[in-house]
Amino acid sequence: MSDRELGYLSASELLDAYRRKTLSPVEATRAALSRIERLDRRLNAFCLVDAEGALAAARQSEARWAKGAPMGLLDGVPATVKDLFLTRGWPTLRGSKLVKRDQPWEEDAPAVARLREHGAVLLGKTTTPEFGWKALGDSPLTGVTRNPWNLEHTPGGSSAGAAAALAAGIGALALGTDGGGSIRIPGAFCGIAGLKPTFGRVPAYPASPMGLLSHAGPMARSVADTALLLTVLAGTDARDPYRLPPEGRDYRDGIAGGVAGLRIALSLTLGYARVDPEIRAAVEAAAETFRALGAHVEAADPGFASPRDAFTTLWTAGAARVVANQPPEARRLMDPGFAASVEMGATYSAVQYLEADAVRTALGQRMSVFHERYDLLLTPTVAVPALPVGQDLTDPSRETYWIDWTPFSYPFNMTRQPAATVPCGLTKFGLPIGLQIVGRLYEEPLVLRAARAFEATQTPLCPALD
């Protein structure tokens, strides 16, 4: 098999091949490393590649499979780690020139620790905008990350390199974070699956300066692999005081159960958003697919006003906290947009922050009542197709901040609900479109089930990068 054929195998397919001894973890890892060497000079999806460490881990996995004794659920599966997760032995620079590379790197974040415990082969660190502050794929430290579907467009962010690598067939699984859409936005722009779980489902450490907005979660090319990775990541870790009690479940169970009889709301604007016509049409077509699958789908907005201002207060205050101990001259090293966010966030009083947090709480209450009537909510994942590289806004006459073109993602960070993205078509220029599926708190299984039911009706697509 070519490295392309190997690169686009799912985690489930890789594990089955290892079990049948038709493929080895070393072969899969070499194929992934070959694709990094050949493609990443164009993509810039990685800020660190550990070929030696990956091959050593793959050989250890190969020996375990030879004995019929695999370790955990991901033994030998190539995976990537976003450069916001602490990783033992690797610098975690967070896309910023402010983080000192020369320091001990001796601890794994909970999600990274779970990957190791289950035998995954860690290929390297993927790129992020500075401290994950925006939904685009560039940083002052690593430069511009590009979209495999069109190199002149962004893969989105902040899990930029994670999504670009998956779309390019590099690694089967990726760790992402999502504080305002940072799993779902690049998932939509790159045509892959991803899930922002309920807050606390995937333990996090150290705590994000963005507080309850920031979630860790799985990214993959398929919903089944997303569910597999969530099974590994969900659990407990004493370092996270907000962790949920472990369910001890396999999130793949019941994933093929379909959507017949479910009550599903379709909101094309959430009552306030402007949406690209092609994206609107693709999501309307997706809703028809759900109807054909037996779900009861009706147009219904949740009934809340745009929480933009409250989110901006919470988000920029978090940005100010990130660099609170930095000297004033450090500003010249920052992404100018991040520096502006820091400056804005530093102006808010404690009362203003608490007022914004009260809006967040009210939004959660509103969605809780909404879900008494509806099992799921369908929306576009992002209101626009992937932006051209170097462009931060789609319409500067109407927009001032990145959240203005992604109005569908951040409200559900505020409510802490599980929300998935799954591809639902391409624009006339060949850029992917994402469908967002939002569920009640703690109901990841239903979100994944619906995502899989829709995914099964779609023709898999991948970019013609090589």
Overview of this protein structure:
The chain is an alpha/beta fold and 466 residues long. It has a domain at 3-258 and 387-455: Amidase signature (AS) enzymes. 35% of the residues lie in helices and 14% in strands. The protein contains 14 helices and 13 strands. The protein has helices at residues 3-7, 11-20, 25-43, 51-66, 110-117, 160-167, 184-190, 223-233, 277-292, 308-322, 336-345, 350-370, 411-414, 444-455, and strands at 46-49, 78-82, 121-126, 138-139, 143-144, 173-178, 193-196, 215-220, 263-266, 296-299, 376-380, 419-426, 432-439. Strands 1-3-2-6-8-7-12-13-11-9-10 form an 11-stranded mixed β-sheet, with helices on both faces. A two-stranded antiparallel sheet has the order 4-5. Strand 12 (419-426) and strand 13 form a beta hairpin. Helix 6 runs parallel beside helix 7 (184-190) and helix 8 (223-233) packs antiparallel against helix 14 (444-455). It is globular, with a radius of gyration of 21 Å. The two termini are 15 Å apart.
Briefly say what this structure is:
By secondary structure, this protein is α/β, with parallel strands linked by helices. 35% of the residues lie in helices and 14% in strands. Helix 6 packs parallel to helix 7 and helix 8 runs antiparallel to helix 14.
CATH class identity of the domain at 3-258 and 387-455 = Alpha Beta
Strand tally is 13
Please write the string of helix (H) and strand (E) elements.
HHHEHEHEEEHEHEEHEHEHHHEHEEH
Helix content: 25-40%
Arithmetic mean pLDDT = 97
Number of DSSP helices? 14
Return the structural class: alpha/beta
